[in-house]
Amino acid sequence: MKIHFLGLALLLSLLISCSSQKDSLIKIHTRHGDIFAILYDETPKHKENFIKLAEAGRFDSTEFHRIIDNFMIQGGDVFTKEGLPESEWYTIPAELGRGYVHEKGALAAARQSDHVNPEKRSSGCQFYIVEGRVYSEEELTTDIKGLQKQFMKYISLESQRALAEQYVQLYEEEKYDEMTELMLSKKEAIEDFLHVNLSKEMTEESIEAFTTVGGNPHLDEGGYTVFGKVIKGMDVVDKISEEKTAAMDRPVDPVYITVEVAKVPKKKITKEYGFEYPEE
């Protein structure tokens, strides 16, 4: 009896070991091509929920219904597709502080705004994929909102009339990136003159991500759960983001999706997709 028990324990141990050596590979199919992603073990509630919906086929025939070029593409509105009453639109507790940022390719959960959702709970179905852009270290370590506020005070000075005119001209020409560059170029002068500190802290890991891969760093300040990452198919995301849109950022031509889940050895995912798992 003892021998049988030890044999069963060994078998269970082997099964657990084999299971931990595999991961769920997500494939999102669109008319532009396929997007492949992995979901993080560090956000177990979101991972379990996404896989459950995908395996049940509930994502199929939903669409990327909100598209903003150079920002993100949002989809997976299962509840609306199925015509569920809002009372059945469940949410998931936020899983923040796991060390993941809104770099390009990040897979994150959509949610309602803070005034109706102070706990920052995630939608039970809607997700988005980050596109974004590459930032300079100066942009990342500057309180841009604070800089803009102080910059407006600064250019109201009679001595800064030429600077104010330059800023207005850029605004009229819709050269928004150059407006930001202009404000940043005056950061030190504004800090000295108005006796303010316009710097902010950011981790080295975040700076590395946003100055190389790119993304949307301000979303990290908003309290949205990042629970996965695109490991192949960002060219597809870029194509989708270029879709012509109408009201509410909805694409004129629907971008429908189907979602599949496959259990794949982690070593194969690393070899074929280049994703490196943390050491266990």
TrEMBL record:
A Pfam match: Pro_isomerase
Catalytic activity: [protein]-peptidylproline (omega=180) = [protein]-peptidylproline (omega=0)
Keywords of the record: Isomerase, Rotamase, Signal
GO biological process, one term: protein folding
InterPro entries: Cyclophilin-like_dom_sf, Cyclophilin-type_PPIase_CS, Cyclophilin-type_PPIase_dom, Cyclophilin_A-like
Signal peptide range in chain numbering: 1-22
Domain of life: Bacteria
GO MF assignments: peptidyl-prolyl cis-trans isomerase activity
Domain (PPIase cyclophilin-type): residue spans on this chain: 33-258
EC number(s) per entry: 5.2.1.8
Coiled coil residues, start to end: none
PROSITE patterns: CSA_PPIASE_1, CSA_PPIASE_2, PROKAR_LIPOPROTEIN
Family: Belongs to the cyclophilin-type PPIase family.
PANTHER family attached to this UniProt entry: PEPTIDYL-PROLYL CIS-TRANS ISOMERASE-RELATED, PEPTIDYLPROLYL ISOMERASE DOMAIN AND WD REPEAT-CONTAINING PROTEIN 1
Role of this protein: PPIases accelerate the folding of proteins. It catalyzes the cis-trans isomerization of proline imidic peptide bonds in oligopeptides.
Descriptive protein name: Peptidyl-prolyl cis-trans isomerase
